[in-house]
Amino acid sequence: MRVTKSQINKFLKNVSEAAKLISDCVEAEGFIHVTSHLDADGITAAGIIGRALTRLGGTFRLRVERWMDDNVVDEIAGDKPTLAIFTDLGGGYLDLLSGKLSDQRVIILDHHQPIGEASSDIMHINPHLHGIDGSRDLSGAGIAYFVAKALDEKNVDLACIAVAGALGDIQDKYEQRSLGGANREIVEDAVDSGYLRIEKDLLFFGRETRPIHKALAYTTSPYIPGLSGEEDKSLAFLASVEITPKHEDKWRALRDLSSDEKMRLSSALSDYLISRGFPSDVALSLVGTVYTLTREEPWTPLRDAREFTVLLNATGRMNRAGLGVTICMGDRGKALDEAGEMLNAYRRSIAKCLSWVNEKPNRIEELDSIYVVRGEGFIDEKMISAVSTILSSSLPKPMKPLLAYSKVSGEDMAKVSARTVALLTEKGLDLGEILRVAGEECHGRGGGHDIAAGAQVPMKNIASFIELADKLVKKQLEGVELGG
Ligand code: C5P
Ligand code: C5P
Ligand code: ZN
Q1: What is the 169 CA–ligand 1 centroid distance (Å)?
Q2: What's the chain look like in SS3?
């Protein structure tokens, strides 16, 4: 979908109203409460707003949440902020927020499909309200960035953080895995201000920072069976295309390869994927747009924007989202070392989940219209989003969406993560709608984007939830309106 200038202008008018409300609140020495979502987009959004508020001299408190529920909103209300800001969440909980936060001003900066009605005290800035597709054209961090820029032009140095946020939400759906729509303006700001460089290359994980065979083994988008997670096999693969992994006694990184070597490697990988039955667009997705944060030290995980997002997800999933937020706000040194350790632990943990799934063929179970991974007892609920994203990139038949779930520790709830591909959303599949309807039906809560959605449902209802979701997918692809 193309984003028109008039759509952007209407959206930006809303953005400047939000900025005005924020600066008035700071000027009146009000107390601001910022709540954001616990993933890379949410963490970058919080970092951007946090940095902008610090520059304004505001008094504020930041918190990062897995999802919103009555308890979270009660706690926020209990803090009695003058202004409550929600970034990368809130749009799916309009009734809840309207009911419980009637005493404060509320700003929601979200890109999820709105659910419910906002009361007149709530300023809801959401691309969906202007016909801009929030699932691929603008992320939570992007909205936060536009607000920060409206507060102070100096905040253009945060555009590169918003680029990372959009990549964290896998919005690189344009040609050669590039960002488009309203994200394009943010990319331009980041490049123009000298913080971002764009080039086309193989999209290995750690192209600047790791020996090539490790970078190949660490690549999970797409997930390459037999190579992802397998350093020895990746090394052997390089040997098979006559690429020497070392120069003298030093490991070479992807950036050290000649263009001829890169061509050889990328066509061999394409052949490898196609010979295993992958569609050609999956094979082609190994080459794409690389976003490099030029002011970050080479050899750090912040240099490549995609790796940056995995680092932030790692801090979130390891219960240290605050660390990720401070890095987005400019903290380096010890904070970065600590986050780096989390990144390693997070990667190991994902690798463990993936090898459990891949151990037996029936762990990705095929139903009529969906695939299911029943991960309770094996997959940590905090990993289910990432695992679902990775597995969905290499399904035997990508024309069925994937629903993976796990049990929330200490609670009798299941956490569901659903993912699909653009080919299906273009045919009318909307996972956000399906998980919302099935969630409500099963005494839980669901929602999200057409291409990626989530739900929480009581464990005892999970079997009926999956059964219902399977039916709803079929119905929706037959063109039936779900409603409800
Ligand atoms: O809440 P939020 O919008 O930030 O999260 C979107 C989630 O969906 C992210 O975790 C992102 O990784 C995931 N996603 C995905 N595949 C897509 C689009 C989004 O896994 N194609
Ligand atoms: O948790 P997960 O990464 O699978 O979520 C995918 C998307 O669905 C995210 O954008 C998340 O914010 C959204 N979601 C939602 N309502 C829920 C659960 C997830 O809007 N109950
Ligand atoms: Zn988001």
Answers
A1: 4
A2: CCCCHHHHHHHHHHHHHHHHHHHHHHHCCCEEEEEEECCHHHHHHHHHHHHHHHHHCCEEEEEEECCCCHHHHHHHHHCCCCEEEEECCCCCCHHHHHHHCCCCEEEEECCCCCCCCCCCCEEEECHHHHCCCCCCCCCHHHHHHHHHHHHCHHHHHHHHHHHHHHHHCCCCCECCCECCCCHHHHHHHHHHCCCEEEEEEECCCCCCCCEHHHHHHHCECCECCCCCCCHHHHHHHHHHCCCCCEECCEECEHHHCCHHHHHHHHHHHHHHHHHCCCCHHHHHCCEEEEEEECCCCCCCCCCEHHHHHHHHHHHHHCCCHHHHHHHHCCCCCHHHHHHHHHHHHHHHHHHHHHHHHHHCHHHCEECCCCEEEECCCCCCHHHHHHHHHHHHCCCCCCCCCEEEEEECCCCCEEEEEEECCHHHHCCCCCHHHHHHHHHHHCCCEEEECCCEEEEEEEHHHHHHHHHHHHHHHHHHHCCCCCCC
